[in-house]
Amino acid sequence: MSQAVLPIRVVALYQFARMDDCEARRRPLAQLCAAHGVKGTLLLAREGINGTIAGSDDVIDHVLAHIRAIPGCADIAVKESRAPVVPFHRMKVRIKREIVTMGQPDIDPLGGVGHYVAPQD
The domain that contains 8 carries what CATH number? Predict the structure, then answer.
């Protein structure tokens, strides 16, 4: 079966962005996903959002639009694939200490990063 004809869209996403109001964002996001039958996991933390969700094209577009409306998330990184069925059994929207576990309390992905190198370098 060709990837183009598979009915379910699976998106992995993340964005480092200051998010001081995780609890206020969690419930509306969980309700939106539940109302549209989206399944997967979204992690919210002070440093941003990370997760993988699945559903039909139109509902995934709707959820992504909601996430992109969050300050700092307009350019969220999204990787997409297709599946014949929803690969997840439930929807979880959780608040965590970190969206990517680094185990180093002094690391602040929002405060500074390394030097960017152009691909040709």
Answer: 3.30.70.100
